[in-house]
Amino acid sequence: MSTELEWSKLSFGYIPTDYNVRCYYRDGKWGEIEVSQSETIELHMAATALHYGQEVFEGLKAFRRKDGKIGIFRLEENARRIIESAKGLMMEPVPEELFVEMVKKVVKLNERFVPPYGSGASLYIRPLEIGISAQVGVKPAKEYMFLILVSPVGPYFKEGFKPTNICITRRFDRVAPKGTGRWKVGGNYAASLEAGELAHSLGYSAVLYLDPKEKKYLDECGPANFFAIKNGRYITPASESILPSITNKSFMQLAKDMGIEVECRHIPVEELSEIQEAAACGTAAVASPIGEIDDLDTDHKYVISKDGNPGPVTTALYNKLRAIQLGEEEDIHGWNTVLD
Ligand SMILES: Cc1ncc(COP(=O)(O)O)c(C=O)c1O
């Protein structure tokens, strides 16, 4: 049975599906996988997730491919990243095989919500782990819940693949220099809300954060990594305070495959005046081209796209990655997990 949603009109929001899957860590071991139809969870009021932010999550997508099958993009990479995030918050890591099994199961169970090939929409997969045992002192929980929900999401670029403007502000930091920025933890996002709202209220699509120690180098771009094309080379920030984006990792590989040199290094803000293309990259949009970067503190405007269009390298990388996800091009790196 397929479902009758207007796929191309979906936004990046929550749409109820049929099932979610859950697993609990208790008495020193992970239990059986549970399938649930409930959209709520019952939680002890003293759970560490609620008081001390013991929460880590992931975001990945399943696509209906050209051959009609369902493919999940870079499943193992996401499994490995949530392990690192969990370790960072002293949480019990979800074993990679359990993560993989549960993602496949929840996608299969909600197969009718995987949007059709060609709609531009996909099934967003949101795994999350929380500390659930009651604790009043600041200590890691002894018990954990791992849950995966899914929701169909629409094409990111409803008006087409067009550049948007972003801004730099030194008024806010998302994370501390040796803090939690390299992990996908809820608190980082809470800390980014005020800056994000400011940027949106001024008409920008995101904030380009600078490194929180010196505020000299580019860090990342709201909930996405940043890359630029400078004299034919792919440049992207090396930083301890950014999330290692799986999309960025994929682009770096594709760039190398295309014979483009890749530099992962500190990028001083002023270098923005020497780049020819720039984009934010992440699971949600794949690549989101940047038109102009306005520094709100110095009033300097870095105009990246002179003609209002995405640059050729950004476009080529975006098209290539999308084609691999949709099974239109050969997946030479084995990035897709195709379900039977
Ligand atoms: C802070 C942050 N940086 C970068 C990314 C992009 O990572 P990925 O490409 O793995 O989705 C995300 C989104 O997942 C994010 O939340």
Short structural summary:
The chain is of the alpha+beta class. The chain folds into two domains: 147 residues, 2-Layer Sandwich (D-amino Acid Aminotransferase, Chain A, domain 1); 162 residues, D-amino Acid Aminotransferase, subunit A, domain 2 (D-amino Acid Aminotransferase, Chain A, domain 2), CATH 3.20.10.
What tags apply to this protein structure?
D-amino Acid Aminotransferase, Chain A, domain 2; nine-stranded antiparallel sheet; globular; binds pyridoxal-5'-phosphate; alpha+beta; 340 residues; 18 strands; single chain; seven-stranded mixed sheet; D-amino Acid Aminotransferase, Chain A, domain 1; 7 helices
Describe the secondary structure blueprint for this structure.
Layout lengths: L19 E7 L2 E2 L3 E3 L11 H5 L2 E3 L2 E5 L5 E4 L1 H14 L7 H14 L12 E10 L12 E10 L10 E5 L17 H5 L2 H9 L6 E3 L7 E4 L3 E6 L2 E5 L8 H12 L4 E4 L11 E6 L3 E10 L5 E3 L8 H14 L10 E3 L2
Parallel strand pairs: 9-16, 13-14
Antiparallel strand pairs: 1-2, 1-3, 1-8, 4-7, 5-6, 5-7, 6-18, 7-8, 10-11, 12-13, 12-15, 15-16, 16-17
Helix pairs in contact: 2-3, 6-7
The structure holds pyridoxal-5'-phosphate.
